[in-house]
Amino acid sequence: MEYWKSKVLPKIKKVFVKDSAKKAAAAEATKNFDESKEEISKEFEEKKTELEPKVIEIYEASSAEIKTLVKDPKEAGLKKQSTSVQKFLDELVKIEFPGSKPVSEASSKYGPAYVSGPIFFVFEKVSTFIPVEEKAVEAPAPETKTEEASTSKEKEVVVEEEKKEEAVVAEASEKTEPPAKVEEAEPPKP
Questions:
Q1: Which of 29, 64, 73, 122 is the most buried (most CB within 10 A)?
Q2: Considering only CA atoms, which of 113, 122, 116 is closest in space to residue 58?
Q3: How far apart are CA 158 and CA 175, in angstroms?
């Protein structure tokens, strides 16, 4: 019992206490960041024009996973891509992006998963510079009235034909299925 108390129990406590201390410190860093969000937003608005080309350059050079995280931040993606998130934050620190320095420091100390709120705030600011990519769905060329009328008539004809086919199939299935006969079987002989 002495061995258990002196050797094993302290190691177990160390594992659990260390994690909770890390969470508490990360929560404190997040709280401090939240208090400075207004100042960061003001600084961001002031430097917006000079930051735009630099941010776009960094964004274009980053991996597809980071691009996805910036556009659609998710906790799971942040945990999976923690090293690339840290690299991206370090690049933002180099160009003096507002708020990136404290976020990068907290992320390197505690891990990106523990300071996700501030990271997502920075990503939100970065995403304002990202051009919106429209999918390859192009609007069809405007049709003339005669074309519109002919296509709507064609659609009506197709719909009517489908309804007729369904009715014919339903009638045919009713006619072809004879009523089930119930035959009485003779009881087995012993």
A1: 122
A2: 122
A3: 26
